[in-house]
Specification:
The complex is a heterodimer of chains A (400) and B (184).
Chain A: E1 7-12, H1 13-23, E2 28-31, H2 38-49, E3 56-59, H3 63-75, E4 80-84, H4 86-91, H5 93-101, E5 107-112, H6 126-129, E6 137-140, H7 144-158, E7 167-172, E8 180-185, H8 188-194, H9 220-252, E9 260-263, E10 270-274, H10 278-291, E11 296-301, E12 303-305, H11 309-316, E13 321-326, H12 336-342, E14 350-355, H13 365-382, E15 386-393, E16 396-398
Parallel strand pairs in A: 2-3, 2-4, 4-5, 5-7, 6-7, 10-11, 10-13, 13-14, 14-15
Antiparallel strand pairs in A: 1-8, 6-12, 9-11, 15-16
Helix pairs in contact in A: 1-2, 1-7, 3-5, 7-9, 8-9, 10-13
Chain B: E1 2-10, H1 15-28, E2 32-37, E3 47-55, E4 70-73, H2 78-81, E5 94-98, E6 109-112, H3 114-121, E7 124-125, E8 128-129, H4 132-143, H5 148-158, H6 161-177, E9 179-180
Parallel strand pairs in B: 1-4, 4-5, 5-6
Antiparallel strand pairs in B: 1-3, 2-3, 6-9, 7-8
Helix pairs in contact in B: 1-4, 1-5, 3-6, 4-6, 5-6
Classes of the chains: A alpha/beta (400), B alpha/beta (184).
Chain lengths: 400, 184
């Protein structure tokens, strides 16, 4: 690959999304502002207004209208984008199922923010996880650079004829959305090479004057058949996500590993598992623990849907213990990731599901390291531990 | 090398903008940088914390900074309402304070009259002296992490015309006038 002088700068996550939307040559954007997402919409509107983007920007009266309008534009064959956050996502919720069910390849940035009450503007993952069963592909970025790269890749994945599902990219409120970080921006021609224009006729296209119906009342068996077809598309997406990551690496020079990123996992006896921006903080904790002789590594889920079952199975089998860090909670069960990962943790492997950081509560790398030490200590002392849900708050691990 | 900086400011003093200019300047100097604003229910006048990291290695963490190497105080009055002990851990921080007179912190301390510089330069918006860029001029001198000319180059990305000229004048003056005034 020829060497290039890339633009290197510091950029906030919201601007990185807007920049990616511009470079993906998105033709249609409809969005409604909500903290901490607003800056994405503002920046895109500015770029459209200044003529830097050849796109239509539509102001709408609500998030429900934002996704309806974006979905409509995508059904007419153009590359379309929207963005929201927390309560905004809930307000458009019905349409999220319509978009996925109708197999419309839109991309949406979800700037993660806790759902009230109590009212809160800081991050946790519960908002994007409400999409879990809807048919949306769900990705979570770790840093500003990945936020940019993921947004570009999201269009590639959504528009693949084997997939044709909408993609939601999670970037965390304030700690990514408003945090300025080092970023390298590819050239436009590189993005164009990776992401050619969308085929407007796939999966189907609405045209003015032509009669066409989608999502109508049909036979019950058809309903179930289409759900199974969407599930198949999710399975297909696994391969498409990996291929997209490889192609991106080939053209742009940066790859992440597909559905998951493996951090210092070789020979790790204990596996930590997480998603999102605090995974970077956990990596620092892994480094500290490794320096102290602990055999630990991190499996970071870049995608939650499709769920990286094979990667998780492969990593967890033969491990001595697993800790899942959930910045979310399914009230009445446990952390959402813990629930899903537990399916693949053999009964003789130690396990903790740790719920922490809800509502933006900061957890430091030292705190992560101390939680892991507590877990490892219990395993070494007792020989085995299995706690589906423990909580971490105010320097304390506890059960209720 | 990894340096962690805390800005203590009041809402409206431009600390978040300053932190972004600083991050861009550090990257321009070939470093990795990160600027995390701590937003909450703050409004104009409330104390706001902003965290900046500079490193020769990629920065992975997104945690808040609890024990900074350097604390920049945008208004001397903030020291009357913040207990500095909460920021002191296993490192002794260096202070840079916007003040026309020496301030006793118990640690190595630099002062600069950024407010005076802003007023003399005509950097006043809605009655508020705009001190954020001046403090970045001072910080260049205190840390040696970046050159004044690099900062001035990046200011050109954020500001244009007369406003840019005034900001350049302010950072130059602040750089010259920053001096150590440690009182243990």
């Amino acid at each position: 690959m020829k060497s290039r002088e890339r633009i290197k700068t510091a950029m906030i996550g919201n601007h990185a999304v807007a920049q990616a939307v511009k470079m993906a040559r998105v033709k249609f954007i409809a969005a409604y502002p909500i903290t901490p997402q607003t800056i994405i919409v503002e920046r895109i509107a500015e770029m459209v207004e200044r003529g830097e983007m050849e796109a239509e920007f539509v102001n709408v009266e609500s998030e429900f209208a934002a996704l309806s309008t974006t979905m409509g534009a995508a059904m007419a064959g153009v590359r379309a984008f929207t963005a929201t956050s927390s309560h905004g996502l809930l307000y458009m919720y019905e349409l999220t199922w319509w978009t996925a069910g109708a197999r419309v390849p839109v991309v949406m940035a979800v700037v993660n923010r806790a759902i009230g009450p109590p009212w809160n503007i800081h991050t946790d993952h519960n908002d994007i996880l409400t999409l879990r069963d809807s048919g949306w592909i769900i990705a979570m970025a770790e840093n500003v650079q990945e936020t940019f790269d993921m947004t570009i890749q999201a269009f590639k994945i959504a528009e693949d004829p084997k997939v044709m599902l909408p993609v939601a990219i999670g970037l965390e409120g304030f700690i990514l959305s408003h945090t300025a970080e080092y970023i390298e921006l590819p050239d436009q021609w590189e993005i164009d090479q990776f992401l050619p224009p969308r085929d407007p006729d796939k999966p189907y296209r609405f045209r003015l004057g032509e009669k066409f119906s989608i999502g109508n009342l049909g036979e019950d068996a058809n309903h179930m058949m289409l759900k199974i077809a969407a599930m198949k598309a999710m399975y297909n997406a696994k391969k498409v996500i990996e291929e997209s990551d490889h192609l991106y690496e080939k053209i742009i020079g940066r790859g992440y590993g597909g559905l998951v990123e493996r951090y210092r996992l070789d020979d790790a006896k204990y596996v930590l598992l997480s998603t999102g921006a605090w995974s970077g903080t956990i990596k620092d904790a892994v480094d500290m623990l490794r320096d102290e002789g602990y055999s630990v590594g991190l499996l970071r889920l870049r995608f939650i849907r499709p769920f990286p079952t094979e990667e998780i199975l492969k990593t967890l089998s033969g491990s001595k213990g697993v800790i899942v860090f959930d910045r979310d909670i399914s009230l009445g069960k446990s952390g959402v990731l813990a629930t899903e990962v537990l399916d693949y943790v053999d009964r003789d492997i130690s396990f903790w599901g740790v719920v922490a950081g809800l509502g933006g509560v900061d957890v430091s790398s030292k705190e992560f390291a101390s939680i892991v030490k507590g877990f490892v200590g219990e395993v070494e002392r007792e020989g085995f531990t299995r706690r589906e849900t423990v909580y971490y708050l105010n320097n304390e691990v506890f059960e209720i | 090398m990894k340096i962690e900086i805390l800005f203590l400011s009041r809402g409206g003093q431009g600390a978040v903008t300053a932190s972004r200019i600083l991050a861009s300047t550090l990257v321009e100097e070939g470093l990795y940088a990160q600027a995390i604003p701590e937003f909450g229910a703050e409004r104009r006048g409330a104390v706001v914390k902003t965290y900046i990291r500079a490193s020769t290695q990629p920065i992975k963490t997104h945690e808040m900074i609890k024990n900074p190497d350097l604390i920049v105080v945008f208004s001397r009055g903030i020291l009357d309402i913040i207990d500095l002990k909460i920021f002191i851990g296993d490192k002794n921080p260096v202070f840079l304070i916007n003040s026309s007179t020496p301030v006793k912190t118990g640690f190595k301390t630099f002062v600069v009259d950024a407010t005076g510089i802003a007023i003399k330069t005509g950097l006043v918006v809605a009655g508020w002296p705009v001190i954020n860029t001046a403090l970045l001029g001072s910080l260049s001198k205190v840390t040696g992490l970046y050159r004044l000319e690099t900062l001035i180059k990046i200011l050109g990305v954020f500001f244009k015309g007369e406003l840019l000229e005034k900001n350049i004048e302010a950072v130059k003056k602040a750089y010259e006038q920053t001096h150590e005034a440690t009182q243990i």
